[in-house]
Amino acid sequence: MSRTQRTNEGRGRLGSVLSGVAVALGCVLFLGGFVWGAFLYQPYTVPTGSMTPTIGSGDRVLAQRIDGDEVRRGDVVVFEQSTWGDLPMVKRVVGVGGDRIACCKDGKLTVNGKEVAEPYLPEGKGAAATGIPTTTVPKGRLFLLGDERSGSLDSSVHLGDGEHGSVPRDAVQARVDAVAWPMDKFGMLERPDGFADMPGGISEPGPLRMMVIAIVVGMVLVLGGAAYGPVAKRMGRRRAGGRTQEIAGVG
User: Fold this and answer.
1) Is 156 an active-site residue?
2) Which of 21, 59, 97, 152 could form a Cys-Cys staple with 50, CB 3.0–4.6 A?
């Protein structure tokens, strides 16, 4: 056996090993990303336009399952409150226990006397459809508003229901991390900086981005590793054909 043949066989074996490793690693990343996501995230369809323009009616969102104690100001959360309805709802947290909420000073929402920048509101719309008298959020509860304030049945509408229109933290089921559908709106939700310097700060994004990267990289490795065999065989045939032609020419 010639040195060239031995070299080619060695390369072939190494390529097969690397191909198998790529496919195995790709499967781990691809399936692991999906399992990780299924464990941490829940898809929801938003039934109304009360969170426009951040989330529109009929949009599909991915929400991370969290405990109510993890909620921070500015979070968009999925929750259920029996006095508000019997379906999961999606609103933005603007106040936590002990906060004083009011609207509107110079057309802006205030939390503990500080005006809050709300870039997520519809362009040209105010911070509230009607005024919100100074309201203290009870301990262990949340004050929630829709981004489309003129059509949102939120805490401002339920002020007279008791507990100043707030909902308990344990009513929260998940925190929205991203819009998954429609594709033209696909992306992570931004954390609003207007609440960043308040006690507790704002929440950190969940691991959704890492999961997507793991799935994409895994898919690339699986496809690349699986394609190695056919490509290597085709290249081998071409090399063999070239050698045959050379021998025939010599003869």
Assistant:
1) no
2) 152
Question: Per the residue annotation, which of 2, 16, 19, 50 is the catalytic one?
Answer: 50
Whether this model's pTM surpasses 0.90: no
Phi and psi of 229, rounded to 5°?
A: -55, -60
- Exposed (0-12), middle (13-18) or buried (19+): which is 211, by Cβ within 10 Å? buried
How many Cβ atoms sit within 10 Å of the Cβ of residue 235? Answer: 13
Burial of 86 (0-12, 13-18, 19+ CB in 10 A): exposed
Q: What is the pLDDT of residue 66?
A: 95
Q: Among the options 19, 91, 156, 203, which is catalytic? A: 91
Q: What is the pLDDT of residues 132-159, one digit of tens each?
A: 999 999 999 999 999 999 888 999 999 9
CA distance 214 to 179: 19
d(CA 14, CA 5): 14
Residue 65 phi/psi, 5-degree rounding, is -70, 125
Question: Is 50 noted as a catalytic residue in this protein?
Answer: yes
